[in-house]
Fold these 4 entries.
Entry 1:
Amino acid sequence: MSKLGIFVNRQTLSSSEQLQALVKCRDVAESMGHTAEFIFPVDIKKIPKLDALFIRANTDPMNTTYVAARMAQMYGVPVIDDPSSIKICADKINMYMHLMKKKVSMPRTRFLKKKELDLHMAEELFEEMGTPLVLKEPSTSFSVRVEKVSTATELLKVSKRFFKLSDWIVLQEYIESRFDWRVGVLDGDLLYACRYIIPSETFKIQASVNGHIVYCDVESVPADQVPSKVIDMGKAAGNAIGKGLYGVDIKESNGKLYVIEVNDNPSLEGGEDAHYPDMFHKIISYLTTADIASHADYLSDQVYGPQGFEGDFGLGAVRAFVHADALLDSDVYSYKIDFSGR
């Protein structure tokens, strides 16, 4: 019997769906013979006494979830999400670089540096990548600070706003679709699969429209009805990040698949498990029986200077970022931040 901690905060309990999922997780753990308790930020000192920790609060390297993950790691407590996964997925540039390193298919992507983007460059980007384009601020989550732009002027306007928060931003070609595949991956294997039906009012799975939040519909899909290439791509994208729990968003267009995001701490309360009743059982079994200590090993940051990032994803030597071949599989990639212009 193991003692499982489920790390939550006030936001985690903000909806009945989230609360029901947490209670289900606890009940499954107890049915498996374990004890389970909810751990709030004020209870963080309890973590060293746990046998496993399951974080079910918004993860970010700048909040208490990362402290909880690192504390678990330091005391040898198996944890989902592990600190390196949190650091990678919280930074879209970091995350996309991992996908590039493993040659996972994704939309054509550019990393734009502060002070280098001007009208001429913006016009060139539209000529290269088509219209419209999608602009992302690297630390975004829940589709916030993800905007579609159709002109060079609009690109400059939105990027100016995003550059107030980051020295780098992400620009991608727009892949049109009415749904995203969401593939849940745990330890490199399929956990669940569903379709996120994109609301007609937007191109994102969640957006504010006329002052109201609109959400995607979730349609759980049995594994034997999911194209094998979708499952394979979800596994490949998850493995590019680590061996934890991930939600991989995939779009299909003209017969080709594109990974849009890899999310740590994915949603488990939207009905994703409708055709996967053993979802929580697998997660708890993984935490309490699998040898996952090696997955939580600390991966130190490596800061790279501009070396040129060529190929389909590159900006060329002048708009350089980092060369993919210089990156190691064990690195949590980072990049230099220049605060001099602030």
Entry 2:
Amino acid sequence: MKYLSSFVIVMAAFFSFAIFSSNTGENSGDQQVSKGISNQKEQSNDLPQIIKAVDLSNRSFSFAGEALPMESFDVRERLDRELMRNSYWHSNTILNVKKAGRYFPIIEAILAENNIPDDFKYLAVAESDLSNAVSPAGAKGFWQFMKGTAGDYKLQVNSEVDERYHLEKATRAACKFLQKQYDRFGSWALVAAAYNMGAYRLDKEMKQQRAKNYFELNLNQETSRYLFRIVAIKEILSNPRDFGFYVDDTDTYKAIPDFKTVDVSGPVANWGDFAVKHGTNYRMLKVYNPWLISSSLTNKSGKKYQIRIPN
């Protein structure tokens, strides 16, 4: 009995120690997990963005001097959609903020020369993200001209030259188109819609729907969103920090460096040889003259071209 009592006492002490150690371990593990969660919470507070809705209350919006009827819930919600999409399309929007520093001065000057409202520079952003883009339908350049329309506005398009990629010439052609549509519709908002869907189709829809302005029209999804997308782009690019885009002046793309102009009125067998002859290289020749789309130029007509060569 004496031995049995001693054995019971020893075993009781052993199990007590085991239970105490187990609880201590569990508490320690819980503390570690709790500490880890706390650290994660602290780290999450350091995220560089806050996801929130765009405040449209007590604000007015306009395009080319024409006010959007913000008293309409339909107008507010359509604009809200485009503001949200472009506010949180981070990489694309911040690149447009950067590219605007290079290309807006060129576009603005040509719009002003042709008495076209400055807001139409944002149409070029909506069309191409300020790049020589190519659409699935074959529209090309900053202003996304189709080949036939380009020819109507005196832009040369062939297998060697595509002036839809010539920013200055294409912008002047766009100005002519925009003015023509304003003379027809008398509203810059409708001009933007006509740019997207075509003047003939827009005119037909207005007559059929008995609509007096863009906001009364029930159009295809792309054109229905088009003006609101332009206005959203205008708001964000005009006030990028209000939408969380912090781009310093040093971060924006500057004007393409100085260049000289060389007149060419005959054939060029190889633009690579031409580039080397004029102290540059093929890549830079194409950067400065993206409208030269071939490696050579036949030029049987003897047309004079102005080729930009970096200094």
Entry 3:
Amino acid sequence: MKLLVIFASQRLGGENKKIEAAMKSAEGNFEFDFVHLADNNIHSCMACMGCAETGRCVLPSTPDDKFQEIFDKMLLSDAIFIISPVYAGIPSRLTALFERMISILFFSGRINTDNNPLLGKKAAIFSYASCGICDETPIKLIFDKFVMKNYQFDCSTYEYLNNAENPKAVYKDITEYVLDTLKSLK
């Protein structure tokens, strides 16, 4: 199973390094692709609507803009894990990734409403801070807007792989939560 793991932290190492090492040592037939947004610039959307016709962003992939490369990895993966710290809201590079995704999926969807290649993709979104596991609902709500045809502003309606109601009470740390969700893919 191809699993894309997007670490949204602005920093390398730390908790992400620990989670990545634990995932690599997990049992299962996984082909991991780890993307650290700290290593990847993503420019904000220009709202040019050029993606409406092609379903691809018209901004070229460059060493200074890795959006299309990361989005293509999302399309090719069997499942997506997004692991994000909570510094203040949502990290800026994750926001830029989501912003570009909505343009592609929304504008191309206006032409062909069934043209959403992420619809139904297995996904898990995790959020943490120095205090431990955080409520991932805010990021899930934003992700819902990019993969769902119908979404709500107050509750997530997507069937995520991780859906513990109070994960902080169930798991000792974010790594355990990620690994338990990974086991569900077997």
Entry 4:
Amino acid sequence: MKLYNFDLLAYPSVPVDAPRTPVPSSFFDPEVGARNYEEHLDEMTYCEDLGFDGVVFNEHHYSAYGTMPSPNLIASALSQRTQHMKIGVLGSILPLRSHPIRVAEEYAMIDCMTRGRLIAGFVRGIPAEYIWYNVDPGESRGRFQEAYDLIIKAWSEPVWSYSGRYYQFEDCATWPQTYQRPHPPVWVAARSAESIEWCVERELPIAQVYQTTPQMEDTFNYYRTVAADSGVGAPPESFILTRHICVAESDDAARAIAEPAMEYFFTLLNAGFNEGAVNPAAKDGDALWAALNTSRSFSYFRPENAGRIDFSTMSYDELIECGYLIAGSPESVRSQLSEQITRTGSGQFMGMFHIGNMDHRDVVTSLELFSREVAPGLPPDVGVAHREYLARTSGT
């Protein structure tokens, strides 16, 4: 079982009454921002001492929800403060890149700077970001797949050319090259049927986060089904379970910390992307969703799991019950996480330990308790645990 800390690096002090999407940047306090980067980097660095397999972070734009418009900068900083653990970027939003070779070049730099500790992640991004970056969301999938092929080619061939619909290059040589050969391991955030099928074809692990546990089962099981039909393996490490998580000395202590932090997180998520946007194109969320997906994108879900869920309307107890949040004492967290790992068959877990505006000291305590008291009690063999779960629940 591989264990990671996943960090959105949210801005911690947006007022509740701040204007909605987009939140004016006048609400950004440079001193708060500077301290926030320092604290998050300290937490990331500490994960190596605690025995985590790595730290992973991602890219967002125009929002306090995630203040890493360039996650490669964070990866570079962390590369100089750690020696052993993996550094993952999950990931670069490929369709927003007018020149995806910059991603290949910068990832290669990080991989060399860490002597082969990079996990290279790629994502399609949040719908509203396409509007703000002036990229047609209808081109998202095509741009993503072309950019991926282009990056792999740039890492694999001494001199290369590429001719696609969106990108054309002639007689190029990529310097530097990656430290890991032929290239770093690649992770992809995937949920739609089309994305899962594309990942299976390339035998790429997939990560998922904002779903219930039954929805997560459906997503990962669809990957397994497609893999079996294609004669491709689907070992536990192909599945990366991601959850908000808070470990404290007791269930009540965890609730006192995590409940307001989750409320703040949902405020950032909604104010950043989901509430009435000034831009009419960004405001029409249904149209954006349709441009990014097709009628079959989520048809693989069981009927009871097919609907899109507004998790921000759920209570603290409901968030835990559906699996969206894992929180409590070490014993409670170990039980909740073990159940989700067993049901989904996930061989890799990313915990979102710094939720919203959680206090730095509470995050450090949560990381310490997880490392010391939760991790040692997780299922020792995910494949066996998952098969036993399927045997117990077959026919139900």
